[in-house]
Amino acid sequence: MKETDKTLKLFRCAFFCLILFLSNFNAQNSNSTVKLFFEKQKKGMYKNCINELKKDKDYLYAKKEKSTSITNALEGSCSVNVQRFDLFSESSVKLIDSVASKDNSDFIIINRALRSLSNAQPSLTILKFKGQDKYYTIHKYYVYNDNNKDYIVSDGELVEYKPKNNFDLLENYVYKNLLTDKISKFPSKKLKYYKQMIQYFIIARISGKLIIKKIYFADDYGY
pLDDT digits over 46-62, tens only? Predict the structure, then answer.
């Protein structure tokens, strides 16, 4: 009898360790997938920005005159513009590690840039579990640091931001594949109806499977 009890305890311990290992492995695997996705998006946007610069008259003139300060500044603006993807990646991984890893329910995470006067756009990342009303939000923005004469990233909360209406549409799209005229994989088809279609990067876990999508969404909130 004692041997049987000992065997059961060892089995339970081994089973618990296996579940813990698989949970950590899945979280790490999800994080790697998320990081690779945003790194690819970052490289693609930077390449497109540089290609557009090569058509710009001011850039071409500065190149011709060998004005490295101007060309470096213009190329630097491309680097600043793609920093949003670092924020998306960091915030998404943080929510997966701190929130999603503790609950096996389906969820969606949305990432989008917010309006800004500078090229370094603030980011908004929100996680919501399926069938729940709570929103887990990370808002990152750049603050000028007088000591280092550079911009640093800070966390913050968006006051009075109520994403429920948007999430109803996004959840229907992700979970039920229901499209509306406010959601598109390509912006051009919908621009005649809305002034601006905003890029949304969606990370979803559906029945244990991780899905990542880029869409264009007509956000009425005005951020």
Answer: 999 999 998 988 888 88
